[in-house]
């Protein structure tokens, strides 16, 4: 459960470091790295649920705060960490005090600074429909201070030194035999003849890549086990943040007229190139793909089930940039390629879908929400966990009231209620 993971795994460790920092036992640079990790964890948590209890963590009373408050406080904390990391990257670039325990960058503060600024850019873009002026300010600051620009800037959690990392997705698809390629990414990547397919998935017995529709009312597991599984082993690094995402964020900002240091088309093509490099492919292959006029294809159900759930193609957008298109077509193209490049970072892909409405996805087959969740708009957030209701019911009731007050669709603690930043006027 994302809620419990954030508060049982991340926040207690962060709190111990905070106390050590306040007592002079931890240096500024170490605590700055801890702040970046905290911000990333809590940004994801609040994006899932909305209001969460943060500011008074570790104290007897730790009330839920609005997502607006959480976001703005996290951005303040991130800015403070950036100041410290900027100084260390400039003056002690070769220092590696965290080398043996840093499973992301092996103590390289220059790259931690790029990650911090890239997270800032992500969060800035996340709030652009609810706080456009603030979003632009933070986005332009992040770019000026230096975001990820090279494929090896990406943040991958991997075994390093004394730290052993096992990719949890491998256990889900292999040990539990559960996860399979989705029908939507099947339609897009097969339609595009995307060269990244072998990096993402394994072929089926027919040598092709096949997915499964979401929201099946009933299914026999054996009917779907033959479909494509993620190409993820135990030692496959876990994606935190990739340089390709930063490029696509800059493409969207440039499209809006923000100072991103270049134009939308260039950053869009850079995002594709970086994604290809991140997956072991070449810049030449990326350039060819970026000129492709191919479109997503219709989904053909290749499962062993007796009933086939085929679907028409979800979109007509191609990889090839169209400079003369309107902003919506440009945005769809940017987010579609960003969504593909993010794989398997499903959390951020879902958040971007909620924020923009892209990519166009195949709807669930059966909606069991009783009308609380729109089939076309899809789920907007997760309910607070039952443990919060059993141990903290009064606080959850207050949190639900806060959630409703800042939502564009206030329907209570359910999947149909939008979070604070989810206010795209087109959706």
Overview of the molecule:
The structure is a single chain. The protein has 16 helices and 4 strands. By secondary structure, it is mainly alpha-helical. It has a domain at 168-237 and 277-356: Four Helix Bundle (Hemerythrin (Met), subunit A). The model has no long low-confidence stretch (mean pLDDT 96).
Overview in brief:
The protein is mainly alpha-helical and 427 residues long. The protein has 16 helices and 4 strands. The strands form 2 sheets. The chain has a two-stranded antiparallel ribbon with strand order 1-2.
Q: What amount of the residues lies in strands? A: under 5%
Largest sheet: 2 strands, antiparallel
Q: If strands are numbered along the chain, what order do they take across the biggest sheet?
A: 1-2
- Termini gap: 28 Å
What is the number of strand segments? Answer: 4
For the record, the CATH architecture of the domain at 168-237 and 277-356 stands as: Up-down Bundle
Give the helix tally: 16
What pattern of helices and strands is seen along the backbone? HHEEHHHEHHHHEHHHHHHH
Give the radius of gyration.
22 Å
Overall morphology: globular
How do the helices and strands line up, and which of them pair or pack?
Blueprint: H1 2-22, H2 28-49, E1 52-53, E2 64-65, H3 67-91, H4 109-126, H5 132-145, E3 155-157, H6 168-175, H7 183-191, H8 197-200, H9 221-224, E4 238-241, H10 243-255, H11 264-278, H12 283-290, H13 327-342, H14 346-356, H15 386-391, H16 393-405
Antiparallel strand pairs: 1-2, 3-4
Helix pairs in contact: 1-2, 2-3, 2-4, 3-4, 4-5, 4-10, 10-11, 10-13, 11-12, 11-13, 13-14
């Amino acid at each position: 459960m994302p809620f419990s993971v954030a508060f049982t795994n991340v926040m207690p460790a962060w709190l111990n470091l905070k106390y050590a920092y306040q007592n002079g036992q931890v240096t500024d640079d170490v605590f700055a790295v801890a702040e970046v990790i905290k911000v990333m964890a809590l940004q994801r948590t609040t994006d899932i649920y909305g209001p969460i209890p943060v500011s008074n963590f570790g104290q007897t009373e730790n009330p839920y705060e609005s997502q607006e408050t959480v976001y703005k406080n996290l951005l303040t904390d991130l800015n403070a960490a950036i100041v410290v990391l900027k100084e260390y990257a400039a003056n002690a670039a070769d220092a590696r005090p965290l080398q043996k325990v840093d499973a992301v960058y092996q103590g390289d503060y220059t790259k931690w600074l790029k990650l911090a600024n890239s997270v800032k850019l992500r969060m800035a873009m996340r709030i652009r429909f609810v706080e456009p002026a603030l979003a632009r300010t933070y986005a332009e600051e992040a770019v000026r201070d230096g975001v990820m620009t090279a494929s090896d800037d990406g943040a991958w959690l991997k075994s390093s030194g004394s730290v052993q990392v096992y990719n949890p997705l491998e256990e889900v698809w292999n040990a539990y035999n559960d996860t399979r390629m989705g029908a939507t990414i099947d339609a897009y990547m097969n339609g595009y003849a995307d060269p990244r397919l072998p990096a993402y998935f394994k072929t089926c017995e027919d040598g092709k890549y096949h997915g499964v529709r979401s929201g099946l009312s009933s299914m026999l597991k054996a009917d779907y086990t033959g479909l494509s599984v993620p190409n993820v082993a135990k030692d496959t690094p876990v994606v935190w943040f990739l340089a390709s995402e930063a490029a696509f964020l800059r493409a969207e900002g440039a499209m809006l007229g923000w100072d991103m240091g270049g134009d939308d088309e260039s950053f869009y093509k850079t995002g594709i190139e970086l994604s290809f490099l991140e997956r072991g492919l070449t810049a030449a292959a990326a350039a060819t793909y970026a000129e492709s006029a191919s479109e997503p294809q219709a989904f053909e159900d290749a499962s062993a089930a007796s009933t086939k759930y085929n679907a028409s193609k979800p979109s007509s957008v191609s990889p090839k940039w169209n400079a003369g298109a309107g902003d919506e077509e440009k945005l769809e193209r940017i987010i579609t390629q960003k969504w593909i490049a993010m794989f398997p970072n499903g959390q951020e892909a879902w958040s971007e879908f909620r924020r923009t409405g892209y990519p166009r996805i195949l709807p669930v087959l059966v909606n069991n929400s009783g009308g609380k969740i729109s089939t076309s708009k899809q789920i907007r957030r997760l309910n607070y966990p039952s443990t919060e209701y059993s141990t903290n019911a009064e606080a959850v009731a207050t949190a639900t009231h806060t959630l409703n007050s800042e939502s564009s669709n206030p329907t209570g603690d359910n999947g149909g209620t939008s979070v604070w930043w989810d206010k795209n006027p087109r959706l």
